[in-house]
Amino acid sequence: MLHLLVVDDEPYAVDYLVEALDEVPDLQLTITKAYSGREALVKADKGRVDLLLTDIRMPGMNGMELADEILGKWPRCRVIFLTGYNDFEYVQSALRKGGVDYVLKTEGDRAIINAIEKAMQEIRTEISEEQVLLRAREQLFMALPSLRRDYLLQLMEGETDSPSMMEKRFEELGIDLDPNHPVLAVLGRVDDWGKFSAPADRTLLFFSIINIAEEFFTPDVRFLSFLYDRTRIVWLMQPKEGSMENLGRLLDGCAEQIQMFCKRLLKIPLSIAIPSAPSSWELVGSRVEALKLQLTFRMGTGDEMLITEPTGEERRRSSCLFLEMEQLRSRLNRFDLLENYLDNGGKEEFVTLFRELFTVEVPLFSDGEGRWFGLELFSRLSAFFLSYMNKRRLLEELDSISIQAEKMLSPDEHADWNEMIDYFCKLGAVIADYNGQKQVERTHDMIAKVHDYIHQFLHEELSLTRLAELVYLSPPYFSRLYKQMTGQGLLEYINETRIAKAKLLLKTTDRKIHEIASQVGLESAPYFTRLFRKRTGFTPQEYRDSNKSWKGSFTGELHNSGLDAQRIDNMNKPTP
């Protein structure tokens, strides 16, 4: 949303322009008013100014001087001058600076609105989609290695996309691999850093190892490598031609040579773990985890190991349980999404994602290794919810019966895996529901606070910026939130409140029209009259006269009914 600052030393002109702009559909502007150049500068210090609409001839600081000051603070601001015929010499000098337009005061509202819409379009063109995308592509090229690594690590953690989406992402990130075919994942580990002890030296070392490996595998292999963590490198490979079996044989023959060159040229020992078979993209992360375990159980000195993953029946016996476990471990990396749904009160979204992450085959967790893994998952889930609730002090807020805290702390409180998952899912639903209710309450309290302020300080200027500051929100966001929660714009509510109080003052006091205008926050009596008539169908004086006529007739009937004069006088007195 763009920010417009309207400046004129005539309050009526400012109020009139703001109301006219507020009635333009889909203008998408936040508007701030100022009645002098000095006041405008104060407001420009408090927030960004995208457009400045100002009169040229003002006492103290004129519009030309104000524009120079604003442009000094906000160089990308567009300036529109409201001018008379005799101001054109000033405008000509301003036009030479660029980003400046002018409207003759005699041209009317439509010309002003057109000038504002034109300036808005120029701003949007300046930051148009094409330019943003062009700059993004340039930045993407610079950040490509880092973005590529981040995406591949997400794949390692099990966050795979559809094949078509993966194809698109591979192309964007320059990944020369086919997402529709299996991939061979090889793991390398630096066993001893040697002279490469500094972080900058380690980065250089990693890229040196990658370059050595590329020399052996290209041009026969589609090959990509990235840093997996502080000590390990992952190589992802597919054959350009031929079969995976041929690629496996090539790998077996080259791995020892890669180790030899790393030792000779870089003076570092490198261990390599080779998989027994290629993996689908969904399971490549689990395969890398298995290779990590292979390298963990060192033999001999533990340096420069060259290990091949077990094959045949031995591997098949353990693969089902292991892959299931690794997939679950990778899903634990998505706690941030669950936390986001909890914070936003997204009860249904939380339940859907939680069930998706933790629905598994129960027999896998019935005994042996699977049982211990079930305890591991319980610990992770328990720690997540306990940490979440402690940070937000929810343990004191939520009913202890509804959360059954003992089940969050002890795995023995659950009969089986299903019961444990059901408990944590329901616990998350309770938290999300509570947070959602609190958000609604806080929003209503915030709006009530703003409404109280409006009623208390109706006689003062009630800018969007000032009201947003009361509730510590940005003006554009507060404006959208207010309309979303109440169904009307903030200015509309302020004007309704002003008219309601003006009606009361017209009915119950003998104050002059311009005094009532000032008391409801409108310094310009003509503008007050125009706004009042637009809202009620009467001028303020017509409204007062009609109420006096009604009151006089009603008072006469009271006299005829025999009520004493003192009680009638009391009824006619203004409300304090």
TrEMBL record:
Q: Does the keyword Transcription apply?
A: yes
GO MF, one annotated term: DNA-binding transcription factor activity
Q: Which keywords describe this protein according to UniProt? A: DNA-binding, Phosphoprotein, Transcription, Transcription regulation
- Which Gene3D superfamilies does its entry note? 3.40.50.2300, Homeodomain-like
4-aspartylphosphate modifications at: 55
Where does the HTH araC/xylS-type domain start and stop, copy by copy? Answer: 448-546
Repeat among keywords: no
One GO BP on record is: phosphorelay signal transduction system
Show the Pfam families listed in the entry.
HTH_18 (PF12833), Response_reg (PF00072)
Q: Which InterPro entries match?
A: CheY-like_superfamily, Homeodomain-like_sf, HTH_AraC, HTH_AraC-typ_CS, Sig_transdc_resp-reg_receiver, Tscrpt_reg_AraC-type_HTH
Question: What region holds the Response regulatory domain?
Answer: 3-120
Under the heading SUPFAM superfamilies, the entry gives: CheY-like, Homeodomain-like
Question: Sorted alphabetically, which PANTHER family does this protein's record hold?
Answer: ARAC-FAMILY TRANSCRIPTIONAL REGULATOR, HTH-TYPE TRANSCRIPTIONAL ACTIVATOR RHAS
According to UniProt, the name of this protein is: Response regulator
